[in-house]
Amino acid sequence: MSSVLIVEDESAIAELIAINLRHAGHEVTLAASAEQAQHAIGGALPDLVLLDWMLPGESGLQLARRWRTDPRTRDLPIIMLTARAEESDKVVGLDAGADDYLSKPFSPKELLARIRAVLRRKAPNTLDEAVEVGALRLDPATRRVTHRADSGWQELKIGPTEFRLLHFLMTHPERVHTRAQLLDRVWGDHVFIEERTVDVHIKRLREALAPAAVSGLIETVRGVGYRLSDASGRQAA
Ligand code: CA
Hints:
The chain is α/β, with parallel strands linked by helices and 237 residues long. Helix content is 41%, strand content 22%.
């Protein structure tokens, strides 16, 4: 399930979008102005923002630009909504940092498809899609982690935090993540936990993965953090 912040001052449109998103399984928050949106974001970062261009006060365009300069919101997935259909507007919207741009009126089906596409690109760990790395498979829908053995797929026992940690690492492979980044992305931002907590859960995760014999999968990058790297795939390539 993904959390979506809808920033739209026309309440009828906002409600209609909210109904469709909730029906598709998203968790929805509404904001009717840039100020309200900023307030909502200050509490917790959503997985994606639907941002109307024309808002009373600060415009959606200005808000998107501002968010892109703040390290906390720089990577926030944003889809710009607008009544303007000019090609030049689209370019301006994307230049402001929007990941996609949708002109009103749009169908709910199209909106959901665009949301899914942006999330797949920028936050794949928020989707319920199964992910495979090497011989390891994680399925968010069934909350199961399995590995391919000679005898077929074997299930691994794994705790809830280790599951989320593994999900994030598997959807962001080959990149080094600092402990602070992992706390933000796996535990949630604005959560004040000591960084060594990450080390504890990495250790537990490695133990949980031990039956799969993928001991090199999660690498410790000294002085930086952790990286999930598919050594088997690298050798094959
Ligand atoms: Ca508007």
